[in-house]
Amino acid sequence: MTTSTSTIPVITSPTEETAAARAATLAASPPTEPMSIVQTRPPWRHTFIALKVPNFRIWTAGNLVAMTAGWMQRVAQDWLVLELTHSSTAVGITVAAQFAPMLFFGLLGGVIVDRFSKRMLMMITQSVFAVLALGLAALTLSGNVEAWMVWGIAFLTGLVTVIDNPARQVIVSELVGQKNLRNAISVNSSVFQLGGMIGPAIAGALLLAVGAGWAFAINGAACILVVVMLTLLNASQMTRLAPPPRAAGQLRAGLRYAVGKPTIIWPVILVAFFAVFGLTMPVILATYASSVFHVGAGGYGLFNSMIAIGALTGALLSTRRASIRLRTVVIGVGVTGLLQAVTSQMPAIVPFALLLVTVGMASLLFQTASNSLVQLSSNIAVRGRVMSLYVLVLLGGQAVGGPLMGWIVSTFGVHIGMLVSGGVPALAALVAGVVLARRGHLTLQVRMLHHVPTLHIAQRVG
Fold first, then answer.
1. Among 179, 258, 334, 335, fewest CB within 10 Å belongs to which?
2. DSSP class per residue in 150-218
3. Which H helix or E strand runs over 455?
4. Rounded distance, CA 118 to CA 44, Å?
């Protein structure tokens, strides 16, 4: 099989923007540059073709270490707070403390990322992460840790994440250039989500074997390793653009640009709903392990391992997509939400754990699609600000969702909590589909599949 490509504008909605929206977009930044995109499903040998770029190989290895270790710390600190306080609400406060800075300063982080070297910024942020993680490890291993200390370090970690996360997203284009950007974004997005699936599974095993303190220590060491790997990047082989000139209103211009493109703003809206309700698994699974199935930290690690298995499958499938469209994100959010809602009704640990595999796969597929669509739809000159908005809703949404879901679980029970965590995003996807259909972006078609009528969402052309 051969892979055919053509040079066409980056993925945009079939419906043209209004003149006012287009004018605002052009005022925000130059038009999106043409990009070579894959039109047919790539052969298996090209599944990870971006990894042929030496800089991207080094980056991906370091990124996987950073994502996995970072999520190990997050899960370990959530479990530690649960042990210290015996309160789901306190766990929610921990989640809020880590992600609240993104709500307040996330967009400012995008402006900083657009102005300065992404590599330099990440070397600084990873060094600070190492200091914070090793400090928390020392407090925990010495037996002097208290919940408020965990909250404080989580908040400081969140402040650093304001810059680290958008830099992590945008640096990909500097590493691989335009030719393999689509595949690199998919690989990078998969690593981002994969670390969020594998890290908790490893953390569960560490919690059972040696306790939370060593999980924090490992994260500190991993951050130092990432700094070393960043120094190994060959700067001469990186594609860099001159930063935009300093000017008033750059933040507003970035927001105006994002709102003017349906393929940016709708994924951002749907990811926001999923982040608030669907990405609260640490709060929910910790309660399932401790209060429903009574399997402790070992069961908590098992549940996260099931999600990791699904995520590994989803990561492989995501690199082989022939196309990514707005409907891909809408359907993905709906399917993921429905799977989580169904999981809430499982009466035994075996079907519960097996359904978590499907949740992990669907979640990674949809989040990778939304991340790729947003990046491919945005001009490189404004991509840092666009991705800071995306990361703001992805991580900042969890700052709202953490205490909210903790309260729901404490008040109505964990089964209702899991039902809500999936049901609300599924409902949001349904509403988005209806709104987009009314605006002409999507249409509902009836097709015959083996002589059985089935509903199919398609994007309207013309």
1. 179
2. HHHHHHHHHHHHHHHHHHHHHHHHHHHTTTTHHHHHHHHHHHHHHHHHHHHHHHHHHHHHT-HHHHHHH
3. strand 452-459
4. 31
| Helices and strands of the chain, counted as H and E runs | 15, 4
Instruction: List C-alpha distances in Å: 56 to 21, 61, 238, 355, 387.
Output: 36, 8, 10, 34, 19
Look over the chain and give the mean of its residue pLDDT values, rounded to a whole number: 80
Look up residue 44 and give its DSSP letter.
G
Q: Is the pLDDT of residue 457 over 60?
A: no
User: Which phi and psi angles does 348 have, rounded to 5°?
Assistant: -130, 160
Residue pair 436/266 in contact (Cβ under 8 Å)? The answer is: yes
Q: Residue 432, Cβ neighbours under 10 Å: how many?
A: 22
Residue 234 tokens read as 């060959």
In this prediction, residue 19 carries a pLDDT of 45
Candidates 201, 395, 403; CA nearest to 283 is 403
The residues, ordered by sequence, that sit 6+ positions from 69 with a Cβ below 8 Å of its Cβ are 199, 218, 219, 222, 223
Q: Are 246 and 409 in contact (CB under 8 A)?
A: no
Answer for the pair 387, 276: CB distance below 8 angstroms, yes or no.
no
pLDDT at 444: 52
Token readout for 12 is 């945009």
Does the 48-459 domain belong in CATH 1.10.3720.10? Answer: no
- Whole-angstrom distance, CA of residue 384 vs CA of residue 413: 40
CA distance 99 to 95: 6
116 vs 323 pLDDT, higher one: 116
pLDDT digits (tens, 9 = 90+) for 324-353: 788 889 999 999 999 999 999 898 999 999
* Secondary-structure breakdown of the chain: helix, strand, coil percentages, each rounded to the nearest 5: 75, 5, 20
Question: What one-letter code names the amino acid at 244?
Answer: P
Q: How far apart are CA 30 and CA 166, in angstroms?
A: 21
pTM of the model: 0.68
Q: Could you report the per-residue pLDDT of 72-86, keeping only the tens digit for each?
A: 898 889 889 988 998
Q: Within 13 Å and on the Cβ side, how many CA atoms surround 281?
A: 27
Task: Please report the pLDDT score of residue 7 as a whole number.
Answer: 34
Name 36's bridge partners.
7
The residues near 307 (Cβ < 8 Å, ≥ 6 apart) are: 197, 200, 201, 281, 356, 357, 359, 360, 363
